[in-house]
Design goal:
The protein is of the alpha+beta class. The chain has two domains: 213 residues, Bira Bifunctional Protein, Domain 2 (BirA Bifunctional Protein, domain 2), CATH 3.30.930.10; 51 residues, SH3 type barrels (Roll), CATH 2.30.30.100. The strands form two sheets. Strands 1-2-3-7-6-5-4 form a seven-stranded mixed beta sheet, sandwiched between helices. Strands 11-10-9-8-12 form a five-stranded antiparallel beta sheet. The longest helix has 18 residues. The radius of gyration is 18 Å and the shape is globular.
Length: 273
């Protein structure tokens, strides 16, 4: 890799920037790992405290929702997972990926000036191209949430991508035409994530999350989509319900999508009244 492509984290600078925050002294960095989410899950099992951060420059087994692979080239993206040990009500757990998405969008805007489009349930797009993804994994006991791991991958410096991706990809550098600072992006992301995660503890704040996601997205209302997964169907998006589940108006009525993913659909609008 040429020297111009290197973008190394300043770990001492990171620790200094996080001093006095909930993340102070909880940064776990590995130049290479299998998956930061796996590292965070193992940390949780070993009793790591909440707000522990697992960061890497390269993942060999990076993954997204539904076991999709997340390409994690060395030094080109932001790959981080955060262990959350908050008393989030199980009722609000389905809102967590949306809250993380809002935090990632805030960080992207802060570091690059770009406005990300949120695609339910866990993608961030710049125009028609995917720039970031989220994977939230949780452990619950009955109605209690033992812990959650919020994993975020953001394409920062990548210049090329695999040609067979379901959604064409892009990076912050490609979209801005300049080199975006990964470290500044990470710091902004962690601080935004803390704010958004804590909102889930406040019933009034949590209730606003679906509407805020709708406002930050062109996908949540009036968009013809195909739903992939166990609730496969096609129709027009009709917003989010109070749990953050996607409503899709189909020829058979409105369907509440609790799991799966969506893609833009080429459908004749005359087929639905």
């Amino acid at each position: 890799m040429c020297e111009a492509a290197l973008d190394l984290y300043d770990l001492a600078g990171l620790e200094a920037a996080l001093a006095g925050t909930v993340f102070a002294g909880k940064l776990h960095y590995s130049p290479l790992t299998g998956s930061t989410n796996s590292d965070a899950l193992e940390g949780a099992r070993q009793g790591a405290p909440g707000w522990s951060v697992y960061l890497t420059d390269e993942q060999r087994e990076g993954r997204g929702r539904a076991d999709h692979q997340w390409h994690s080239a060395a030094g080109e993206g932001l790959y981080v997972s955060v262990l959350l040990r908050l008393p989030i009500p199980a009722l609000h757990l389905s809102l967590l990926p949306l809250a993380v998405g809002l935090a990632a969008a805030e960080a992207i805007c802060s570091a690059s000036g770009l406005t990300a489009d949120l695609r339910w349930p866990n993608d961030l797009l710049l125009g028609a191209r995917k720039a970031a993804g989220i994977l939230v994994e949780t452990k619950t006991s009955g109605s209690e949430v033992n812990f959650a791991v919020a994993g975020i991958g953001i394409n920062v410096h990548q210049r090329s991508f695999a040609p067979d991706l379901a959604t064409p990809a892009t990076s912050l550098d490609l979209q801005t035409g300049r080199r975006v600072d990964r470290q500044a992006l990470l710091i902004s992301l962690l601080k935004s994530l803390e704010r958004k995660a804590r909102e889930l503890l406040d019933p009034e704040a949590a209730a606003l999350i679906p509407r805020r996601v709708e406002q930050a997205s062109t996908w949540m209302r009036g968009r013809w989509v195909e739903v992939h997964g166990p609730q496969a169907c096609a129709g027009v998006t009709a917003g989010l319900d109070e749990h953050g589940f996607l409503l899709v108006r189909t020829t058979d009525g409105v369907v509440t999508i609790q799991t799966g993913g969506i893609r833009a659909a080429e459908i004749d609008s005359g087929k639905m009244d």
